[in-house]
Amino acid sequence: MAEKKPFALRLDADLLKAVEKWAADEFRSTNGQLEWIISKALKDAGRLKNNKT
Description:
The protein is mainly alpha-helical. The chain has helices spanning 13-25, 30-44. It is built from two helices and no strands. The chain is globular and about 30 Å long.
């Protein structure tokens, strides 16, 4: 399992609410949903070298 590094993230309240709703709809935590969104965006852009996530 990859090492997890915590960091602070500031989001607009409406953006966070939308991510929380999306996460709940897919039975994920908000953090898990954000990781999935970022991972997918990196893969789609060809910027993720290893596909561990």
